[in-house]
Amino acid sequence: MFDGALTQGGWLRGQAPDGTVSARLGEQELALDEQGRFFAAFDRDAKNTSELVASLADGRTVRSPVGVSPRDWDIEHINVARRPSGASEAFMRRRQPELDAIWDARTANSPSDGWQQDFIWPVTGRISGRFGSQRVYRGEPGSYHSGLDIAPGAGTPFVAPADGVVTLAARDEFSLEGHLIIVDHGAGLNSAFLHASQIFVTEGQQVRQGERLGLVGATGRTTGPHLHWSIKWHLSRLDPLLFVGPMP
Ligand SMILES: [Zn+2]
After folding, report:
1. In what residue span(s) does the M23ase beta-sheet core domain sit (predicted)?
2. Per-residue pLDDT, 90
3. Calpha distance 176→195 (Å, rounded)
4. What is the predicted pLDDT for the residue at 20?
5. Does one domain contain both 143 and 227?
6. Is the same domain home to 229 and 110?
7. How close is the Cα of 177 to the center of ligand 1, in Å?
8. pLDDT at 82
9. pLDDT reported for residue 116
10. How many alpha carbons lie under 13 Å from residue 26 in its C-beta half-sphere?
């Protein structure tokens, strides 16, 4: 039994059959809570079919195919050569510890039931960038936009979209993300919030849905103040728009 946004960048929540000892979506092992409930999700580039597999205590295996509907991503072809990334050695010396800290925060595996909640908007305002959009430079694809950009104006407070544990709160600005917050919602699901001007939480802190995390800003690499909100489930990048209802 499962339900959710069964599409690329989407997710599902389900109930495993009685007697399930382990379950997976494709190759990804699922975390089962005490009632056998689980969360799973589909990467932006997920194939059109997947499979939920439950292994039961009596040795049986239950397989459920899952259709994952394709999305029509906003792809812009431009007749300009892709800029060489040109990351200098000096930059990478600064960057690598940041990447390591982000990896540790994204894979922290905190005990939280936030994944069971219906998410709320961390902040409302103009949507200035969508998840999955991508530029192709003379046939060479650039990396796609990995989050949802919301631009309510500098200094607007943003809140936790669901319960979780703060696994990163960058008081020193990261080179690209600026003041960055990562919240672990449990079961492999986590949110990142970029470019904050101020941070109100500390690492290890438990936060409740709706609790203030920081203020929208323009720290790191950005052209103007906005909140970049990205969601991941293990290695899969997800579309935040599929976690929240229409903007209130
Ligand atoms: Zn963004």
Report:
1. 144-240
2. 87
3. 8
4. 97
5. yes
6. yes
7. 10
8. 83
9. 97
10. 15
Are both 47 and 98 inside the same structural domain? no
Domain assignment present for residue 95? The answer is yes
> How far is ligand 1, taken at its centre, from the CA of residue 64, in Å?
35
Identify whether residues 194 and 149 lie together within a single domain. yes
- How many other CB atoms are there within 10 angstroms of residue 153's CB atom? 12
Check pLDDT > 90 for residue 175: yes
Residue 56 CA, ligand 1 centroid: distance in Å: 42
Helix or strand run (H / E) with residue 75 = strand 75-78
Tell me if 178 is assigned to some domain. Answer: yes
> Ligand 1 centre from 24 Cα, in Å?
31
* Dist. CA 143–CA 166, nearest whole Å: 27
Residues 63-70, mean pLDDT to the nearest whole number = 97
| 63 CB-near residues (< 8 Å, 6+ apart) | 51, 52, 53, 54
| Domain co-membership, 127 together with 238 | yes
Give the Å distance between the CA of 23 and the centre of ligand 1.
Answer: 33
Name the DSSP letter for residue 135.
E
Question: Domain tally for the chain?
Answer: 2
| CA separation for the pair 233, 41 (Å, rounded) | 6
For the domain that residue 177 is a member of, what is the CATH number? 2.70.70.10
Tell me the pLDDT tens digit for each residue of 12-37: 999 999 999 999 999 999 999 999 99
Render pLDDT for 177-222 as a digit per residue (tens, 0 to 9).
Answer: 999 999 999 999 999 999 999 999 999 999 999 999 999 999 999 9
| 109: in domain | yes
Range 218-243 average pLDDT? 97
Which residue range(s) make up the domain with 114?
89-242
Does 20 map to a domain?
yes
Q: Which residues have a beta carbon within 5 Å of ligand 1, which is an ion?
A: 129, 147, 149, 228
